[in-house]
Structure formats: structure tokens, C-alpha cells
Amino acid sequence: MTATTTAPVATTPMHTTRQPSARLRAWATRAPLLPALVFMIVVTQLPFVATLVISFFDWNALYPDARHFTGIDNYREVLTDADLRHSVWTTVLLTVAVVLASLVLGLVLALLLDRKFKGRSVVRTLLIAPFLVVPVAAALLWKHVLYNPEYGLFNGLLHYVGGPQPDWISNTPLLAVEASLVWQWTPFMMLILLAGLQSRDNEQIEAARVDGASDWQIFRHLTLPHLRRYLELGALLGSIYIVQNFDAVFTITSGGLGTANLPYTVYQSFYQAHENGLASAAGVLVVIGSIIIATFALRVVSSLFREEVSRA
Amino acid sequence: MSAVAVRLRSRRKGVGLGLVAWLLGIVFFLPIAWMALTSFHSEEDAATNPPSFAASLTLDGYREFFGAGGGASPWPALINSTVASVASTLFVLVLALPAAYALSIRPVKKWTDVLFFFLSTKMLPAVAGLLPLYLFAKNTDMLDNIWLLVILYTSMNLPIAVWMMQSFLAEIPVAIIEAARVDGAKLPTILTRVVAPIALPGIAATALICFIFSWNELLFARVLTGVVAETAPVFLTGFITSQGLFLAKVCAASLVISLPVLAAGFAAQDKLVQGLSLGAVK
């Protein structure tokens, strides 16, 4: 996969003097870059090309001799198979719900943390912590320690107020996975939005306030437009990470109860069902989804980046 | 309204909003606090409803986790995770530093295109190459080998590191480097005496973030390792199905395995956003 956006054109050459050995010098400049570039191409691009090739084969690892070319049959099967289609839908639902919820919560927290108050850095540290729990550990924490219907913390707290004792994971499996992910990703959104808030023009806001603008007006007409690109960036980066989520689905529901997303389905169809061709086709679909998100993401990063370069 | 009155009003409101911030901070931290408390409870006290907040404390959960009760010892997994995370982070630095140099201090032509190529590889999901990597590993006897994970984690983190370091190196004023060159300093001297001291905090933050991502990784580790090269997150997946009274043990395990990440994350707190947003936000 290659960058599809138009990258900002900004060169800051230190030496523009043309010498006879210009080509040699160009290679000397390029040399430090090559190991990293070659490494990335070999380790990330080649396997994907292989996935693409395998996706056109009917290939079950248990019957390797029956392997044959089938064209787009795997894709047809992925897109028509009820379970697989459901996992496409689950992926979309999971990603959109988690990104939106954590973005809104993150915005609220960032706005609160943008003001000065006693113990602000402590609160900031408390809020970052969920993001710094190993994802599997966080999922285990939610599954066993919080959601458990008999002795989980949620039902324990509900017990005090005489509330019901629901079986969270069985009743609302997808929501259970989503809640744990929102808990982990809200700090991420908060950090990005907080950085955005702190890059605001304070004088402009102060001036608006003196002119009698209400907090809401300032938020609506100054803060929000300024934050737009940070919101986009948070949403897109969050989507890229959450579209690929495997840990939470694998740990909390093991893909059961209709929570299997595409990454889990890919894992399952080759690791357990040994359907190499189908797994690859599903994998390619995840990539296509990611490319769509990534094209937008790259554009946002590129515009922020161009701003940085021109400011420097 | 006068500026003073505005400030007074906003101060009163500030106290209230400060309290709301505290409340939300505590709500978000509560699951972790509860996990920590439960890890010091006995299994009987950990599994009560309503919860036993004031139960007596014990280290039994930790003893159980470290294999006192005859369970599998977590040490091999912890050592594997350490090897995979530290080694891949070192490889990343070795590859990313020269690359970032060629993209900032002495930029190649079309350096922004190269930078965006690195970024675009990060957007390729892990499942995209999982199966071929598995088949490759199987046919070359690399399955269950920690060094395969080291290679994959290096590729996973290299784009982030290149982006972060590029932005750190680009902050170094060209004039300083030029001045050193005019004074007759050779490239190695410039790199070690001028560039390195300025870039060091950024390099350290980059390393910590790469360490976190490697330590957390599950999918590759789960598919490509078995008994020998199992990492800490894979070890944790052993707790997915309930095994009687085991909450204190789960909490102890989750906490111990998260500790390196919490430590690295707080150490890199200031640069965390920059790393997570691939250098797009400063």
C-alpha cells in the first residue's frame, strides 16, 4: 500500500551546489534511509501481496492437495456468507460506536482539563491510566472483575441501591465489548484534543470574552472550528486502531454472541477452520476498509504536517 | 461586563468544573483502583457480592500468579516479552535514526513522500499479512521463535519511530549544525556532540512508546508463538475462561503485566500524544 495523498511539497535543501559527483552524493544522502525502507517493504508489503494472491485460491490447509485457483469465489463467499457478512457489520458498528463515544467523552474531559484547577496534573494522570493497561489485561478486568454477574463490581455496586443483577456480557455482548474499549480509548482522544485546545489563540478568546461572548458562543464559534482537525485526526487514528481490534473481542466474548469482527473472523477462519483462501479474502476486505479510512487520515495528517513545516 | 467581573465569575465556575474533572478522573481510574485492591484480597474476599472493600490484605494472589499453587510460572512469558520488546525497540532505533536523519537534517528529494509511505504502512492492518507470515514461519521452522516476533514488532513500530524522530530532528536548528561544520567538525562529531544531545529526550520517548506497543501486542504473538516463545499477553489469555475462584490472581497477573507499560507511559507522558498521533500533533 502506498501513500495516496498528495504529500506536501516542501524541501529544505542545505546544499544545492551541483558537483560532478552529484549522483554519488545523492546516493550518499539516500543511504541512511535505505535499510529502513527495504525492511518495511519486505516485512509489510510482501506478506500483503501474498495474502492477495492466496485470496484467489480455494485452499483449506487440511486438504493442501485440493488447492486450486477460484477467482473471486472467496470474495463472493465472504460477502454472501451470513456469518461473515455479520462480522463486516459488527466491525463497522464496533468501530463507529467506540470512536464516537470516546471522542465525545474525550472532548468533555479535554475541555475540563484545559482549565486550571487544584490537582489538574493528578487528574490527568488518573485519566491516562486506562490507556496504559495492557489491552488483554483491560479486557480481562472488564470481563471478570467488573461484568461478572455474581461477584463483579458493577452488580456489587447495583446491589447497594437494590438494583437488578444483569448478566452484562450475555445480555448486551457487543455493548460490553464497546464499553471496555471506550474506557481504554477515551484517554487517547482526550490527549489529542487537549493538545488541540492548548494550541488555541488565547488572546483571541480573551478578547471575545471581554466583548461579552458567552462560554457557549466561544466554544461554538472559536474552539470547535479550531478543534475540527484534531477531532478528525482523533476519529481517524482511533478508527484505524479499532477496526483492527482483536484483543477485546477475543478476550471478552471470544467472538461469540455475534461480536466477531473481521480481524477475529480472519484469525478464526485460518487458525481454527484452516480456510486459508477465505481468511485471505476477509483480510483483503479489512485492508480495503482501512485504505478508505487511511486515505482520509493521511489527508488530515498531511494538512497538519504542512502547517508545521510552513511554520518552521 | 468588566474584565474583573468576568474573571471572578469564571473562577467560581472553575471550582465547580474542577470538581467535575476530579469526579470523572476518579470514575475512570476506579476499575484500576479496584483491580489493585482486589489483587491484595484473598480469593474468598474477592468474590463477594456486595464487594468487600475493607477485607484484610494478603499477597496470596501474587504468590498464586507466580506459580506457588502449582500453576504455570509467568517468568518465561515475562522474559519473552522483555526480549521481544527491548530487542525490537533497539532495532527500531537503529533503523529509524539514520532514516529520520535522511528525512530531516539532510533530506533526500521528495522526503515527504517517503515519510508518508512509512505512515501508510502503519495503516495496513495486522491481519493483512498474518496468514502468509504464519505459512512462512511454519515452512522455515520459525514458529514459536521469539525472534520472529522481534522482526514483526520492529516493522510494526518503525513507521511511528521514523515519524516521531523526524519531527524531533527537524526541530534542531540547521544553523547550529552549519556552525559546527564551519568550525571543522566531521560528521561523527556533529552527530554525537550536536545532534544527539538535543535529540535525546525525543529518542527516549520514541523508545518508550515502541516498547509499549510491543509489550501490548497479542494477535501476532497468539498466532505465531506456542509454548516456548509465549509472551505475557498470551499468558494472560489463559485467564479468559473462568477457573473457579481466581479473581485475585487475575488482578495480580493483569497488574504485574501492565506495570512496565504504566511505568513507560507515565515516563513518556509529555511526548505520548506526539507518538500516538504519529507526530501530527505536538
Distance between the termini of chain B: 36 Å
Structural class of chain A, by secondary structure, is mainly alpha
CATH top-level class of chain A: Mainly Alpha
Low-confidence stretches of chain B: none
- Overall mean pLDDT of chain A stands at 84
Multimer state: heterodimer
Q: Under the CATH scheme, which class of the largest domain in chain B? A: Mainly Alpha
- Helices and strands of chain A, in order, run as HHEEHHHHHHHHHHHH
- Shape-level CATH architecture of chain A: Orthogonal Bundle
What ranges of chain A have pLDDT less than 50 throughout 5 or more consecutive residues? Answer: 1-14
CATH homologous superfamily placement of chain A:
MetI-like
Average pLDDT of chain B, rounded to a whole number, is 86
Question: If you had to describe this structure to a student in words, what would you say it looks like?
Answer:
The complex is a heterodimer of chains A (312) and B (282). Chain A has 312 residues and is mainly alpha-helical. Chain A contains 14 helices and two strands, in the order ααββαααααααααααα. Chain A has a two-stranded antiparallel sheet. In chain B, helix 9 packs antiparallel against helix 12 (247-267). Chain B has helices spanning 3-39, 43-46, 60-65, 75-104, 111-122, 127-139, 146-170, 174-182, 187-216, 219-224, 232-237, 247-267, 269-276. Chain B has two domains: 3-65, no CATH class; 75-276, MetI-like (MetI-like fold). The model of chain B has no long low-confidence stretch (mean pLDDT 86). The two termini of chain B are 36 Å apart. The longest helix of chain B has 37 residues, at 3-39. Chains A and B meet through helix 1, helix 2, helix 4, helix 5 and helix 6 of A and helix 1, helix 4, helix 5, helix 6 and helix 7 of B.
